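Review session, final week

We close the course with one last complete record, chosen because it touches almost every idea we covered. It is HTH cro/C1-type domain-containing protein, a protein from marine sediment metagenome with 179 residues. Go through it on your own first, then we will talk.
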Amino acid sequence: MKIGLYLKELRLKNNLTTKQVEVKTGISNSYISLIERNKRKPSAEILNKLAKAYQTKAEDLLRLIGYLPSIKTKYSFQQIPIYNIATTKKPFLISENIEGHSLLPPGLESYSTKDFFAIRVKDKNMTCKRIEEGDIVIIRKQNEVEKGAIALISLNNEIAERIRSKVEKCNFADEKNHP
């Protein structure tokens, strides 16, 4: 819906004429008419005045015209599971071990949420210089580990080891596929 038509509907809903809106806002009735016919784009200041006259939220009008970004609901953001991996010798990437969800950080929207999971750091053997107890670590599933990267190795859905790669590139694959 165009902003002009919406503003006209609001005016009529409030049983106001353009003359009455002019008196309330100080905006000329001819300019209001131009806005309602989508001949002029109202400024943020004009929208604030009209919102007050029409007893509506200025933010809604500002969003409608594009002066403010639209608000996304919590569920429109991509979420990844946070797994509880307190017991490292048992399968951990299973639904019973999900303790919550985390939003996918900005910049990673182009990836599928299936490529990521998160864990909460719960003990000292999981910490390092930049990772402390209580932190949520977001992990990308991959077969290669770059030099200097920290990797959590999982075989058959069990954590095998946490390593820091010291070689240029490490490849991990199932032995059945690579003799």
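Two points worth writing down before the exam:
The chain has two domains: 3-65, 74-171.
The CA atoms of residues 18 and 50 lie 11 Å apart.
Good luck, everyone.
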